[in-house]
Amino acid sequence: MATSTKLTRSNSAGWAFALPGFGLMAVFIIIPFFFAIGLSFTNQRLVSPNPTEYTGLANYRQLLGMGVITLDAVKDDAGQIVRDETGAPTFPRVRDYTRNNPDYPQLQGMREWFSWGSDTSRTYVLARDVVFMTALMNTIIFVIVVAPVQGGLALLLALLINQRLRGINVYRAIYFMPVVVSIVVVSLLWRFIYDGNSGLLNNMLGAISFGAIKPVDWLGNPNTALGSIILMSIWQAVGFHMVIWLSGLQTISPTLYEAAAIEGSSKWQTFRYVTWPGLRNTAVLVLIVITMQAFALFAQIDVMTKGGPLDSTQTIVFQAIQRGYGKQDISGGSAISVILFVLVLTISLIQRYFTREKN
Amino acid sequence: MASISADNHGLRLVVRYMVLTLVAIIFIFPLVFMVVSSLKPDQQLLADTSSLRAFLPVGDISVDNYYAAFKRAPVGTFVLNSVIITGVTVVLSLFICSMAAFSFVFLKWQGRDLILSIILATLIVPFETIAIPLLLLSSKLPWIGAHGLEWGWLNTYRVQIIPFIADGLTIFLFVQYFKDLPGELIEAARVEGATWPQIYRRIVMPLSGPVLATAAILKFLAMYNQYLWPLMVVQQEEYRPVMVGLQYFFQLNRAWGEIMAYLSLITVPVLAFYLVLQRAFIASIASTGVKG
Known about the structure:
The complex is a heterodimer of chains A (about 350) and B (about 290). Chain A has about 350 residues and is mainly α.
């Protein structure tokens, strides 16, 4: 009897305490999340005179639609390959196949994404939305580079800072400093550093090499823009993960290090057999957090390049915002958001699988 | 022998400090450049970038850029907005998230475990994936204001505050902390007839200093540095926070000195705050890494 009254009493009190928080999260996180999924199957716009319609997978087909076509080089009547003035073989125009060609209805409306081939034939990979595909690839490259490099550098910094030295706290404070600075501020500062004319980086490189290294327009060149943003992003966030590694390092029992020292193990052996196994859980966490943050890449792009030059810094979130907000295409933006979520989830699960405790 | 090994030791110490200092320079030079440049007229600022003078407050030093920045944009309004939005969100978040965590840890009720696991599941949903539907939702939400019932939350303070009060990470931090509090204290209070609100206010909250600091710092950083959301939901300058206010400095004639002044103005207070509370800041980040 007593337990049941206590339980009912707790029931109402329990809900009363939890409801404000859970209610807010339901309205502003959980409902929008399912909204995103639902809206991605419609043609919803932010403001539209027409009623919203269910369109099935149309948004996803538009975003992810791909095709492959292999074309043979154009030959003249004698069977010789027609070459242009540079001697390169000529190929039929891709758009003859993607525009109103009744033989290739599945390629309708696609554009060339990339291609490869030999003298006699060429394979074209087509995409319905080349910009989105580029954004997808850029984001994946960003994640693949940033996750291990940033995680590794953060570990190095943590090991560096985990020494008993006078004044070490000052260094730790400095390494962590960029983390508390807004990424927007950081992006603007680095725009100045990367500037093609009077940028600090060019001036420094020039001074170090006595003028041998010519100035580069780091953000204006499609070959260097994404790399420049990667470098800056790591610079800004690495202190954050240094601290997480550091707290992992400090959970490792000093007796283990003493034992290793008595055994006469080298520095590398100590790291390999004492430190690293003790950091397994930290490693999973660091990787997952960096991956999630890296997939969300937006502010740097918006402040530094707006996706350019030549779409070389387009990202998934930048595309989602450009469409969902800029073009008020809520359903298209939502579909991109869902794709992003599926990617984040998949990669987190894969990382968790590979870093699981092996029994 | 002894002197050689001592020399060796000294040398190694010097090398260690050199490495540490070199790395420190990498992390600090853009920030030094920002503050130093904010004190220089544009022409000198650009000329100085070709030498180490870029990092030294030398030459024609003044605070003119700060005056000019205030003239160019309603800087005071932006700062005030950021303070209001950040302050209100932090306070409400601490209150509401700690209450929820209190319920999850100390009270038994039906559905508790399910609700908690839903809340923790939201940790893997990046805000960017819900930004677009949240924008649509925010444009249609009701509000009872001075003029009765109104629809739509765009261009308000509330749209920048209310969605960010409750979040999975803050609740998680409180749950972790509360689990380590001595349960006997709460049981004893129950036996003596204390109500749950009394236990929350008189026993649990007074013991929660460290986690309140952690949650407050993380929320403060997240809110003050927000960019994407205010960019989308606020078009009127009277509600704009500092990060979005930056756009004013990129219209028409771009003055780098003024930009650096504005950047310093919105960054240096946070950096000062950080340096004073350095241990708490770093401990708060570290505590997000504690295995859950």
